Amino acid sequence: MNSTFFLNIFRFIGLLTAQILVFNNIDFFGFINPFPYLLFIILFPVNGNKTALLVTSFTLGIIMDMFSNSGGVHATACLMLAYFRPYIFKFSFGVSYEYQTIRLNDVLTPERFSFILISVIMHHFILFLLEIFKISFLWDILVRTILTTAFSLVVCISIIYLFKPSRR
Q1: Has residue 66 got a pLDDT over 80?
Q2: CB atoms within 10 A of CB 41
Q3: What are phi and psi of 150, to 5 degrees?
């Protein structure tokens, strides 16, 4: 087994634990919560096994649902993000994606920021759409998506820079 496998296991357990113990208890204005656990899906290796990504994303989401008592919305949002991740990569990185030369842990470039931003927006929109599940509350869904995305982006980028691998 290689180090990427163990890094992904550590990232899965670490982000899930931090989300459950710390970030689920942060609640601004009653509805703004950060969701940095989706960094696992975002930072999964580009050339990694797609089936493994889908299975672990579903597992990540269903565990979040168990601890949040949310009935499958996290699992659905995580699975949708994992499924559409290659298309978001292609949109954000273009030709670089096709040559598999992308590393998200490096310096934050506009391409990396757009990939993280689109991923977080997509995850949060699906999450809140399924959570509220009423089209008449579309304005509420959009406000929660925008505010939670802004807060989650700050937390996710901080975590990326905090645990960035050192250059040797």
Answers
A1: yes
A2: 23
A3: -60, -45
What predicted TM-score, i.e. pTM, was given to this entire model?
Answer: 0.87
| 3-state per-residue secondary structure call for the chain | CCHHHHHHHHHHHHHHHHHHHCHHHCCECCCECCCHHHHHHHHCCCCCCHHHHHHHHHHHHHHHHHHHCCCCHHHHHHHHHHHHHHHHHHHHHCHHHHCCCCCCCCCCCHHHHHHHHHHHHHHHHHHHHHHHCCHHHHHHHHHHHHHHHHHHHHHHHHHHHHCCCCCC
How far apart are the C-alpha atoms of 151 and 33, rounded to whole Å? 7
- Rounded to the nearest 5 degrees, what angle is found at the Cα of 26, between the Cα atoms of 88 and 156? 30
Confidence bin at 107 (pLDDT 50/70/90): low
Q: Which band of pLDDT confidence, cut at 50, 70 and 90, is reported for residue 121?
A: very high
CA distance 17 to 127: 20
| One-letter-per-residue 3-state SS of 135-163 | HHHHHHHHHHHHHHHHHHHHHHHHHHHHC
Work out the number of other CB atoms within 10 angstroms of the CB of residue 132: 15
